[in-house]
Amino acid sequence: MTLTNSLNTRKAQLILSGLGQHFVSPRKTRDKRKTQTLVEFPGAELRRRRLLNQMQRLMNPTSSPTGHPPTAPGSPSVEAEVNNMLDDLDFVDVGSVEVEMSKESSSDMPSNSEILPQKRRILPDKSAEALYGNWRKVIPTLVDPQLKYYARTLSQAKQQTCYVYSLIVLLHHGLFPTAPSQPRMAVSVELLSFYRALFERSCDAINALASALRTHYSRRGFQVTDSRGDIVHEPFCRGLGHAVQWYDVLQVEIERQADAALQKSRDLVATRFQRPELPRPDGLQYGRCAPLLVQRCPACFGGGLFGRPVHQGGDIHVATDGNFHHRHRRSAGDCPRFYEPTYFLPKQFVDAVGLRIDVQRKRPVKAHAPIVPDEAIDLCENAYEAADGKKQKAAMDSFDDTGIMALICRHDIPLFFANIDSPGEQQKYSVALIEHLFSLLPPQATVVTLYDVGCVLARSIAKFDILPEDVTSRLRFATTAMHAYGHEWACQLEHNPRMCVGLGLSDGEGTERLWSRFVRLIGVERSSSRQRRLWLIDRQATAIGSEMKADLGEWIKRRHKRGVKDQGCMALDVINRCETSVEDLRAQWTDQRQSQLSIRAHAPARLRKELDTVLSLQADLDASDRALQTTKTMLEKETASDDTLDVLESLQRGHDRLMDKVETLFSSLNVQDRFPELDGVNLDFVRVLLMARDLKMNIRKRAIASFFEWDKLDRAVGGSHQTLGTKLHQHTRKAIAKRQPALMTAIRKFNLYCERLELLHDPTWNIPLPTPLPTKLAELRGDQTLMQDVWITPSIGEVPRWLEDSDIRDGIRALLKRDRCQEEQTRLVMEAGNLCRFFQEELTALELSLRLPETLSYDIATEALEFPPTPDTVVKSASHCAIAHSGAPQNTTPQFASVTMQALAEDEPALPEEDDVEPALPEEEDLAEVEPEQAALADILEGDIAGAEIEEDQDLVANVCAQVVWDSPEDLVVDDFCAPPSQYPHGIVSGHAATRTTTSSSSFPRQIFEPRDISFLASPTALLNDVCINGCAILLQMAISNPTVATFSTHDLPRIRYNATDNMLWRNSSWTRYWEKDVWVLPIHRASNIGHWVLCVIYLSRKELHLFDSLAERKPWKHDVKDIMKFICRLLIVARYHNKEVHIDLDGWVARPLTIKALQTNGYDCGVWILANIIAVLRGRQITGLREDEMKDLRYYLHTRVLSLPVD
């Protein structure tokens, strides 16, 4: 027999080169006897007949305990009864019952026909609708029995009762049914009440409770079995779930009816004691918020005066934010509607708002005057995902509900929710929440809304008629405090709550705290039905709101102590240290806002790209020009043909034409037209400045992201928030470690830009230079310059103090903090009054309700209301008022109890007003304690980066300091050096000033003096540059040999400020052999409008810093001394790293000025003065004895020494 290859065998596959075709193993044929035979389960027919007989007995009118009329089998009511009967049992095979019933009703179907698989039902069917309809009918009838049960068992032990089937009798004996009719199982009301309280503190845990009950009964010897005697593994889950759900619906109905009865009393109390609407001098008007808002947060909405301007903080502060973790899987399906959410806005209302927004966006933009430049808002919009409503944050094919949007008050109490069913966080949700809030407020109430992208939403509302005019005139937007630092600096000036007048200490981050409390519901929500998901969120929000409402008094006390008192005292301490009056600080802050909100402070990104293109083209042309010149020089030295020279000349002419076109192209950029202040500024300087500005924006975003992750770990380690699991903790650590190298690289690149800008800078441009950033996240987090953009336009006149003086910047921040604390204190007093007034009226209404006959049945429900401890006088007054309202005779006139605000304790003084001349310094024990860094981040945040050393050395550098004593050292040795008199009194030196150079040696680096540098020495009024200072210092050290003195360059201290690597420090300073010297000479340049030279002489053995400033200024040394101490520490560490014997002792250092009286009266001799003092140090003295009129002689002396050098 011949075997043939089948196409389904591996041997028959074609052989191809390369990877070939994908081979799929053939399917193995199945035996038809196993696959086409219908298998009947043993005992299924018997169970079917038993269940049918049982249903027939139940439907028989003669045996019905409730007296229902007979119903034909197969009718909808019969199906509902069957489902009611089976709904509370987990051990009945419902699926097999349905199959058997369908087989009986379809007798024409062949017995051996194949049963098709059914899809999972995701929408409620008729039986489910009937079941939920029966529950909705039963719940109102159980209200009165439940109240009677409460009245009978309140504060009493539960008695043992027999099991009965009537629902009312069941509830009378403390049992709640698991089905609306003919239940087979009932659950103790006490257990359901306990679970309800447990749910408010945790989340939905039906499976856990059902498993716990099964385990408990199993251990006691009780096993639940089915009809065949098999043990049922989950006998309680379904019935217990229905009991919990519908028991909560019953409690909600009771609370609704009790609140409705109580609301009648509230309205009566409010109308009887309504205040007359008299005009007030402050312009505020009387009004009342909707009862719903008052009940949710009486501190915010319980007041009676409204109309405070929004630019002064407004009446009410709310915050809104979206969360896309609370999704719902489409496959989880839905159930019939059984609960009316009290927090969620109707979907029809939200969709109508979205449709109105779409219509308005198609219309022309309204005329408006933006406060923040659109360039800054565009950058904010691109930086945040919340501003991109089209960005898909959840897969719509898998999820039908993608998240929720919350609106909360400033006390973190949830007010309303909007269900998000779109891919992104569209503006319709926040607008709908705000519009619904305004519909419940008095017509004169003003609101401040804090939102992550509040600046973007504010611009949209200003450009389009999204909200009515009467709403937008009473609405103001701000960003949340944590997210504000990710916005542009110009946006922060207007929308940062810490910089907005009237916002106090409201941070808008309560939504994040709310999401942290909702985190346990995320997993349950995704697998629940859509209606049950809304029920879970709504009930959890109710529990959270009730808890926070009861804690409002403690919240106000905590905010006053930790916020107003502690932060206010710290701010006052900073203001006192900056030695500037409050009026001056406020004027500087006003100037800063006006300057940085100007549209001139925001260069378009297109300009930077165009500059890069032009400069790249010019760089290429410069390279070609050098190549042409080199070729021309080579050809001129050799004999070249005329044709070759003609070609070379043609190339030169073509190159000149291209250079002219590049100049024309640069002129077409209109940099001077867009920024006329930059006219005359070096093009390379402008390019680097714009690149530094863009890079700093990128650094700020990266750093803030790292700060958020840092805070997440800090809170978890500190225990203030939910602990992170091992997996999430590791992910967070890996995210920080992954992003840190890119952040450090960007910072080092920015610092190189700063160094490059300092070299290219001309003081006559009046453009402030950016400040370098630290390369350690711990220091970067506290660096306030991180939040400020790079200044890209010249300052008119002198450089502003707020830009030049760091003490002024610190003082401005402290002033803003003090203002916010004062505003917070005022708002806390108002909220405390609202809270007392609310509890007073609520007690009166409650007492009245207890005395009205129509509300007697709700006594138990109203007595269960939670109130904080209340003085007896208030309770008695509320009782008298209630008696008066109920119509009982009394002799006294009804009135509210007098509320006395408790005065501040002596140890909690109020913040002084601005008029206080000398604010009191905070006591030492009142200052807030600074917490140490968390050890969990030490291996990441202090980890391996380029240029970093071991952790001990880093901490040593970060903590070095010296005490500044503003007294000259005793027994100063004055130098008697005298420079020869100048032969050119007018500074005109004859002769050609060619380039001069020093000879290179192992002791001193080579110095080059260009003609421009020499001209500075020749002119008696010229400012010396860094070449003059460094070169002349080397010449002086070569002439005056002193083996104990090491003279550094003016570029060495900036390298410390720019966080240069250790290799760079060693390469530029090792020639001095400083580790062998006891005296270090360090010239320092202070960048200002004209620049200023100072000198620091370091005595290592004596631990002294001698500070020389010819103008005798004190304040700038405060920051210079910190950098000098870092300079000393870094150099000693680097020397030790290179195996040099050094002794590092940085404790007990003292810095003293060499003179406290100004030696210089002009504005150009500062560089000559420090060279004079370098001469004194080299000669073994401490300070120069030259006078100001001798500076021209010293210039001449230095000039002649430079001219004596050989010509290059």
Description:
The chain has 1208 residues and is of the alpha/beta class. Helix 10 (237-272) crosses helix 32 and helix 38 runs parallel beside helix 42. It is elongated, with a radius of gyration of 41 Å.
Instruction: Bin the strand percentage.
Output: 5-15%
The class by helix and strand makeup works out as: alpha/beta
In spatial order, strands of the major sheet run: 12-19-18-17-16-15
Instruction: Tell me the total number of β-strands.
Output: 19
What overall geometry do the principal axes of the alpha carbons give? Answer: elongated
Mean pLDDT across residues: 75
The largest pleated sheet is described as:
6 strands, mixed
C-alpha termini separation:
104 Å
Q: Provide a count of the helices.
A: 43
The Cα radius of gyration reads 41 Å
- Provide the helix percentage: 40-55%
Unreliable runs, pLDDT <50, ≥5 residues?
A: 1-7, 63-82, 91-116, 157-165, 713-729, 862-867, 889-952
Quick rundown:
The chain is α/β, with parallel strands linked by helices and 1208 residues long. It has 43 helices and 19 strands. The longest helix is centred in the last third of the chain and has 46 residues, at 806-851.
Name its key features.
6-stranded mixed β-sheet; 5-stranded mixed β-sheet; disordered N terminus; elongated
Task: Break the fold down into its secondary structure elements and pairings.
Elements: H1 32-35, H2 44-59, H3 76-87, H4 94-105, H5 126-141, H6 143-153, H7 167-172, E1 175-177, E2 186-188, H8 189-201, H9 206-219, H10 237-272, E3 285-286, H11 291-296, H12 298-301, E4 305-306, E5 316-323, E6 328-329, H13 347-361, H14 374-383, E7 399-401, E8 403-409, E9 414-420, H15 427-439, E10 447-451, H16 454-463, H17 469-472, E11 475-478, H18 481-484, H19 489-495, H20 510-518, H21 522-527, H22 530-550, H23 552-577, H24 582-596, H25 605-637, H26 642-668, H27 671-674, H28 683-718, H29 726-760, H30 777-781, H31 801-804, H32 806-851, H33 859-863, H34 872-886, H35 938-941, H36 951-959, E12 963-964, E13 996-997, E14 1008-1009, H37 1011-1018, H38 1026-1039, E15 1045-1047, H39 1052-1057, H40 1062-1069, E16 1079-1086, E17 1092-1099, E18 1104-1108, H41 1117-1137, E19 1150-1153, H42 1166-1178, H43 1191-1203
Parallel strand pairs: 5-10, 10-11, 12-19, 15-16, 18-19
Antiparallel strand pairs: 1-2, 3-4, 5-8, 6-7, 8-9, 13-14, 16-17, 17-18
